[in-house]
Design a protein that fits this description.
This protein has 3 helices and 14 strands. It is of the alpha+beta class and 212 residues long. An 8-stranded antiparallel sheet has the order 9-5-6-7-11-3-2-13. Strands 1-14-12 form a 3-stranded antiparallel sheet, with no helix packed on it. It is elongated.
């Protein structure tokens, strides 16, 4: 299953691939073979990158789920908070080989949406969470609010977010993606009991990050 978020990119890749394949016939056989192999590899990788496997959220209540596939980079107190009981910062790094479709971490109302232009540092660089292009999102369910950001990376220059301010959303549902390598940063409320640690692998819409 392919995500609809990638249709425009896939069409562009297919058109470019057809042009390159036709041009390749003008070259010697060895060059034609190399070009066609490169084209085929590019098409297969693009199809692989935009895969969108089915995910089933756990039946457990009062949980915060991972919004992205990837690897936990950080689990630490949020440094910008002056509270004696600060929120927890959780960062998930998404490599180009991860599923890049993002999913809702908690059910509730979208209370905050803000696009922030910025730089394009490597996504695993912790400076990228504040310097890079990103989409900031806040969801409130009446008991807790979870804030998180889709952060672009060195290769990722296209953030897709279909959310609208004020809409009601359901945990585990798709809401967008970041194309070609990136990260997602979450700020979990102090009442949330973190259930993951650095180095752990996450699956969007299934992995429990915290309970409350």
């Amino acid at each position: 299953m392919l995500t609809s978020y990638g249709y425009s990119t896939l069409i562009k890749v297919l058109i470019l691939s057809m042009i390159l394949s036709a041009t390749a016939l003008l070259f010697p056989l060895w060059a034609t073979t190399i070009i066609l192999l490169a084209v085929g590899t590019t098409i297969l990788f693009t199809l692989y990158f935009f895969r969108d496997p089915k995910r089933t959220p756990p039946e457990e209540q009062r949980v915060i789920l991972a919004p992205a596939d990837g690897k936990i980079l950080l689990v630490q107190p949020y440094s910008k908070s002056s509270s004696s009981n600060p929120p927890t910062l959780v960062s998930i790094f998404m490599s180009p080989f991860n599923v890049h479709v993002n999913r809702i971490p908690i059910s509730g109302k979208v209370t905050h949406l803000r696009y922030c232009p910025g730089t394009f540092l490597m996504a695993f660089d912790n400076k990228s969470m504040e310097s890079n292009e990103r989409m900031e999102i806040g969801i409130d369910n009446g008991e807790i609010e979870v804030q998180f950001s889709q952060v672009s990376g060195f290769l990722a220059r296209r953030i897709v977010c279909s959310l609208r301010s004020g809409e009601m959303v359901k945990i585990g549902k798709r809401f967008g993606m970041i194309k070609f390598g990136s990260r997602v940063d979450l700020i979990l409320p102090p009442s949330a009991k973190v259930a993951i640690e650095p180095g752990q692998i996450t699956r969007a819409g299934e992995t429990v990050l915290a309970r409350y």
